[in-house]
Amino acid sequence: MHRRRGAxxxxxxxxxxxxxxxERHLGSVSVTILDRLGLAGIALLLSVPFxxxxxxxxxxxxxxEWTALLCGLIVAISLVALKRGDVLRLPWLSVGFLGLxxxxxxxxxxxxxxxxxxxSIAILNAAWxxxxxxxxxxxxxxxxxxLVVVVAQVALAVAGFLVAVTGYIQYFQLEFLxxxxxxxxxxxxxxxxxxxQRNYFANFVACGLASLIxxxxxRRVNLAVAALxxxxxxxxxxxxxxxxxxxFAALMPACAFLCHRVNRNRNSFRLLxxxxxSFGLLVLAGLSGAAFDxxxxxRLAAVSGAARLVExxxxxxxxSELVRGMLAYYAWLQxxxxxxxxxxxxxxxxxxxxxxxxPELSMAPSIIDRHAHNLLMQLLAETGIxxxxxxxxxxxxxxxxxxxxxxxxxxxxxxxxxLIQLAQAMVEFPxxxxxxxxxxxxxxxxxxxxxxxxxxxxxxxxVVVAAVVTGFVAAGSAFKDxxxxxxxxxxxxxxxxxxxxxxxxxxERLRAMHAVSIYAPLMELLAAELLLVNDEDIDxxxxxxxxxxxxxxxxxxxxRRVVLxxxxxxxxxxxxxxxxxxxxxxxxMPGILGDLxxxxxxxxxxxxxxxxxxxxELRRQP
Length: 622
Description:
Blueprint: H1 2-8, H2 20-27, H3 33-45, H4 62-76, E1 87-90, H5 92-109, H6 116-142, H7 145-171, H8 184-187, H9 198-217, H10 223-239, H11 244-263, H12 266-288, H13 290-295, H14 305-314, H15 319-337, H16 348-355, H17 375-400, H18 409-425, H19 434-446, E2 452-455, H20 458-497, H21 504-516, H22 520-530, H23 538-551, H24 555-567, H25 571-584, H26 589-602, H27 607-620
Antiparallel strand pairs: 1-2
């Protein structure tokens, strides 16, 4: 009986090695309005960004990410409440992200990146994450752990259910609600909701479902209400078509089993039972195809995650496994070329394009991406050992130091969410988006143990206030820059639809924005796609296109580079670019070569030989 009561009284904070004097001091701190605002910010961060309905070009995820940034800064406001003599906890992960800031800054100084603006955005995100993790860890000291956990669970459960509802709306194409999902035309057979990608949709709905289960297990939510909300979420996981959903769902009973093994009380048993029932329902819906018979019908040719998983196992790995393996190999090659500090942030895709011209990679799978689809490999490729160790070591320490032997129900919920995020980070790149990164940061902050404990003095207080104020200023500046770019883009897009050519005034506005905007790299990419190919200012045009291709080597920009290099008499350089295109854009080559032939007919020159050489090379390939 005493053991059971002791387990029920366990707090997350007991895992934190803070001195007794510090604990007494933290316990004496009164809760301020800024602390309450920070707690509300956690609820907002875990819900509002995932319910943003506007997703459109030029950056479809901007409003979700910017909302997450703002909500995270609201959480960070709680640090401003710290007074002289108070203790600021800085978890090791916060220290690690600050170390990554230094590595990214060093890359800019050493000239390893072509576009400092992109690295600046990464620096702001890394600093924001460090601040967020520290803010959440310190809020645990001001409120009871139960309160912080319950607030987060309620926010995730409600938002997860609402996101699942938007999935049904998207799945049945109820366009009258004006839910702008750019990916509609590509993802109709899968449920993606407002998140816009089936694996990320499954990630968030699984986090919401886990939170709902834990609330129900502790009788904070009526079981009937939990069932009415949970069953649609389980079916939504099935209809997402994500194989990862099975991993996410399996982690819930695994963590519940660990919790019950330690606590062995009614709450932990109820938790394990509900998790097993939920996983069983997911298995039943996925394997029997009941979800598709009931909700798919003949109109939607949906493919379940179960079907995709079985197909992959039967064939020894599907195309996506082959692609992920190749992306990891590209990342490894880039790491070997610059093991200490990496090839530079944002340079992964450009380096794939460049190394694809090598003869030994001529038969590589046709793939190019800006991310290796693996957190470790991406960090190694772009930031080297220095950058990767800043994140990987404290993240590994978080899991190693986790109190598995005395885990409470709240801690097992944290472990489940952390494992869901980590599992997807190994096969996708969810945390390159601020709203999913913010979710992971909140979980890591709530479960953080160890780190630095700093006594607040006048200087440290100024640093904290300056960091928060700088964050709000940066958020405001980014919003203004994006709104200017978005207005320009929508105006140009509307003109194209009505047959109006790009005007000189619009080009001049783009140049003016490029000079001051943090989104200058994206503007260069847009300019490269709009560039007129002729023999005027060839060197300037080639310089622009090369810079744009370092942002991302699109087929349009690469094609223009081939033409300009050929016109300027640099045929071997043009062939190298064309050879890279034949690897990473193999399926598009018939259309690309057709466009080059059409240009050659209008302007006869050296392009014909390049096209014939490319066609001969493609014919030799099996």
